[in-house]
Write a structure and sequence with these properties.
The protein is α/β, with parallel strands linked by helices and 198 residues long. It is 43% helix and 13% strand. Bound molecules: zinc ion.
């Protein structure tokens, strides 16, 4: 029987996405074994984020400053907006450092099943950003799921009357992907997005 404190830590960790009860127990065991080395850093980091994390009023990203580091960076192209479903998508795209523009986080996707409509997402603020007139291009970077694509379609319609170029991430063959292993949806997308051989 573990002590109450250890049980409490295990169940708190088990609530994290990607960690079930078993992984949580392994993490706790590791922390117990390495407490002198690992715990102070972890405590400091947790304390730091709990004190300082804040949502950016402009784009919905999460940072320790508002506007966030991306919105405030003068080297970024504010004329190009990449619209994503979640903060994690900003982090994923920005880790790759492929996009030099700014972002807009919807905070989810349209879902009839979960009762999530346009008013539940940060769409009004997106339209406001675009209607101010300083945006040239909106990149719809929704997930390649049915709901993601429904959301992209809806946004494209709402953005139509604004003078912006609307683009979308290409979907198709993953790098290193073999045709034989792909699902039909991916294959169909890849075929539809075919282009001339250069
Ligand atoms: Zn921001």
């Amino acid at each position: 029987m573990a002590s109450q404190e250890i049980e409490a830590l295990s169940s708190a960790l088990a609530r994290l996405p990607g960690l079930g009860p078993r992984s949580a127990r392994r993490a706790v065991l590791w922390l117990v074994k390495n407490r002198e080395r690992a715990l102070p850093d972890l405590l400091e980091a947790l304390d730091g984020v709990s004190q300082t994390l804040i949502e950016c009023d402009t784009c919905g990203n999460v940072d320790t400053v508002n506007p966030c580091g991306i919105c405030a960076d003068p080297r970024r192209d504010a004329k190009a907006l990449c619209v994503v479903e979640d903060v994690a998508d900003v982090w994923a795209l920005d880790r790759a450092r492929l996009f030099q523009g700014c972002y807009h986080v919807l905070g989810g996707k349209l879902s009839a099943l979960d009762g999530i409509g346009p008013e539940d997402l940060n769409i009004t603020s997106l339209l406001e950003r675009v209607s101010v007139g300083e945006v040239d291009e909106v990149v719809l970077a929704m997930n390649a799921t049915l709901e993601g694509q429904t959301t992209a379609h809806y946004l494209a319609e709402r953005l139509e009357k604004h003078k912006v170029r609307i683009t979308q991430l290409a979907h198709g063959l993953p790098v290193g992907g073999e045709l034989d292993y792909l699902d039909e949806g991916t294959l169909a997308q890849a075929l539809r997005a075919r282009r001339p051989v250069s």
